[in-house]
């Protein structure tokens, strides 16, 4: 059983490792949206998220969303704009679903750092805001996990800053994207689609969410929070 999994992982690494994303840009001239680089190596989040999961999630799922956006908008950039944020805000249906998923995943993948490099707790302004809202960081984590675990089926859980200064945890189904809500700034977004955890945790979503605290990099979350403050939001 272990050999089968190892062999499958090796084949995936050979097939995807460093080739599929790069070759996409060389073969398709209709690129409007490009896939941003993964900010860590495929195996650097192990054992919390395996290389096998990352290779499929980043190399197949995210790539597919971006490919679909490029196929659908083609010459309609005047209508939708040329970046994911404007496409999400101006689209509906299949284009919205793919653009929203692409934007969500870019945000999600840029949330983690390897365990030995991640800042494991918020500090400064954000730590104060979390303590003010939930009492302490552990109580925030419990509330966040509860929303994540309560989402029925596929979706996303978000920590957002509202323009009135308060923080809130929001659950969204499927490709739910919060960019359309001008009243909130996303700070942290976690994917609870099964493809994000099923290889490593099977149906144990709560265990997966609990493990993620070791690789969520609060330095990145804080940068988003402070940028919102500086922008008057
Ligand atoms: Fe995903």
UniProtKB/TrEMBL annotation:
It comes from the Bacteria. Keywords: Metal-binding, Oxidoreductase. It is an enzyme of class 1 (oxidoreductase). The keyword Metal-binding applies. Residues 122-224 form the Manganese/iron superoxide dismutase C-terminal domain. It catalyses: 2 superoxide + 2 H(+) = H2O2 + O2. Mn(2+) binds at residues 57, 105, 191, 195. Its EC number is 1.15.1.1. This is Superoxide dismutase.
